[in-house]
Amino acid sequence: MSADRIRALVTGATGYIGGRLAPRLLDRGYDVRALARNPDKLAGVPWRDRVDVARGDLADAASLRTAFDGVDVVYYLVHSMGTSSDFVAAEAAAARNVVAAATDSGVRRLVYLGGLHPSGAQLSEHLRSRTAVGEMLIESGIETVVLQAGIVVGAGSASFEMLRHLTQRLPAMTTPKWVHNKIQPIAIDDVLHYLAEAATADVPKSRTWDIGGPDVLEYGDAIQGYAAVAGLRRRFIVVLPFLTPAIASLWVGLVTPMPSGLARPLVESLECDAVMGDHDVDSVIAPPPGGLTGYRDAVAKALQHGPLPTDPRWAHVGRG
Fold this sequence. Notes:
Layout: E1 7-10, H1 16-27, E2 31-36, E3 52-55, H2 61-68, E4 73-76, H3 87-105, E5 109-115, H4 125-138, E6 143-149, E7 152-153, H5 158-169, E8 172-175, E9 182-183, E10 186-187, H6 188-198, E11 207-210, E12 217-218, H7 219-230, E13 236-239, H8 245-255, H9 260-269, H10 295-303
Parallel strand pairs: 1-2, 1-4, 2-3, 4-5, 5-6, 6-11, 7-10, 8-13
Antiparallel strand pairs: 9-12
């Protein structure tokens, strides 16, 4: 797809990823439309006057028709964790609405950010749902780029803030066995690089591509790495194999301001490794100039954005 006069719609523009992607696209010279259920939430953002704001909800198919009109690329950055009692059904319905609106409006490409997971593994409900949404978009007949990322390291990212709160507040902790599972965190700036490039990348077909940072480590190592960067003493971790996801999510809820509706799906997703299955994303999107950011450097940059947040609204990521 040519980069000339790209018209991009960013769903979830009030969320963590979407709110950072919109100005990136503007800086590339794209015409950007931001979709929000409540446009008033965008009133204070510095790029508000540079975008066209559309009121819409992915759960309301009728509200998408005007928002999708005249758009070349739709960024699908919304999920329903923590907002619906049945987020799996809500996400499936939203995906169907997006496909219908994109088809009717002649959208040329869909870009979706899903979750990194191993092939053939038994996935949590959250990861199964994210994977199913990606598959629905790929099967839509519209050219689709699905990027799959694990923990996004940046101030305000739900997965990073969960790790941050646990490490800051607990010098000693008992954890489930997933503390030994492998993860491949990626810096928020690198995620934004891949997403922005995905608008015009020359892709051979609609499919998924894994994205991740240069470091593969255990979740427990990520805790210790954060502690080192933050100037904290090494954390004492005791693994209790009998801790279930339900118990672990209650524990997370006690230590962090994360709502239970978001904590449990994220905790359950840690039950499997989150490491890139391949690196063939490099064949369609080159890494950012200067290379990918290492985990500790990404943590250091995240810590420049202020003290530990206590407001639970930081957990409202990826929503419209």
